[in-house]
Amino acid sequence: MFTGIITAVGRIAASTPLGSGREHGRRLTVETPAGWLAEAVPGDSIALNGACMTVTSLDAAASQFTVDVSAESLARTAGLDGTGTVNLEQALRAHDRLGGHLVSGHVDGIGQVTHFAPVGESWELRVLAPKDLARFLAYKGSVAVNGVSLTVNRVDDRAEGCEFSINLIPHTVQHTTLGTLAAGSRVNLEVDLIARYVERMLK
Q1: Residue 10 contacts by C-beta under 8 Å, 6 or more apart in sequence?
Q2: Model confidence at 134: pLDDT above 90
Q3: Cβ neighbourhood burial of 59 (10 Å; 0-12, 13-18, 19+)
Q4: Is 126 inside any structural domain?
Q5: Residues spanned by the domain of 173
Q6: What is the CATH number of the domain that holds 15?
Q7: CA 138 → CA 20, 32, 99, 134, distances in Å?
Q8: Is the residue at 1 inside a domain?
Q9: Disulfide: which of 3, 81, 134, 161 matches 100 by Cβ 3.0-4.6 Å?
């Protein structure tokens, strides 16, 4: 379980195939800021761009760890199939502050950025979500975009999906990978956990 409060931006330094077929996944080597892995051990859960992964090995002194990503996970996420920067969050501990919202680290779908531009001192981010996620997105509700806990400011249902708008403060832009997004970028989406249960009960 996570909160969607990103504690570091890391970098996938290497992506190695685990086999020669399409059914094989990849082993990722992730570099982190110095000291970020001080309390981590193999077997821990770490979210990469919002996708929960299990640490298979780590070298705290070298500030890097590895995870094995299955072909299924690669097919259902964005930004984990090659090298580049990723948002990082270690799993929530029972005594931690819940600064964002409850995030499971299970990606519900891939969205596409339709607009990203400054508005005053902040930035407006618009994302087109898959149509089947529309019922979970609501004004002032929560959503995780690439693992970042965010508040929905506007929802626009369309034939091709649901476009939602988010306001990003400068701190979020500077301390996560969201500042590198542009129109056309693909992002991992996780809808609010409580909304999922409410939708199920109403059925």
Answers
A1: 30, 31, 32, 33, 36, 48, 85, 86, 87, 88
A2: yes
A3: exposed
A4: yes
A5: 109-202
A6: 2.40.30.20
A7: 43, 34, 20, 8
A8: no
A9: 3
DSSP 30-68: EE--TTTTTT--TT-EEEETTEEEEEEEEETTTTEEEEE
Residue 158: beta bridge partners? 161
Do 69 and 114 fall within a single domain?
A: no
Query: Residues 14-26: pLDDT tens digits?
Result: 999 999 888 999 9
Of the candidates 129, 184, 179, 182, the residue with the CA atom closest to the CA atom of residue 157:
129
Residue pLDDT, tens place only, 138-172: 999 999 999 999 999 999 999 999 999 999 999 99
CA 169, CA 201: separation in Å to the nearest integer?
35
196, pLDDT greater than 90: no
Radius of gyration over every alpha carbon of the chain, rounded to an integer in angstroms: 17
Handedness of CA 63, 68, 74, 77 (dihedral sign): negative
In a domain, 82, yes or no: yes
Same domain, 115 and 42: no
pTM: 0.94
Chain mean position to CA 153:
19
**Residue 2 maps to a domain:** no
- Let me know whether 48 and 17 are in one domain: yes
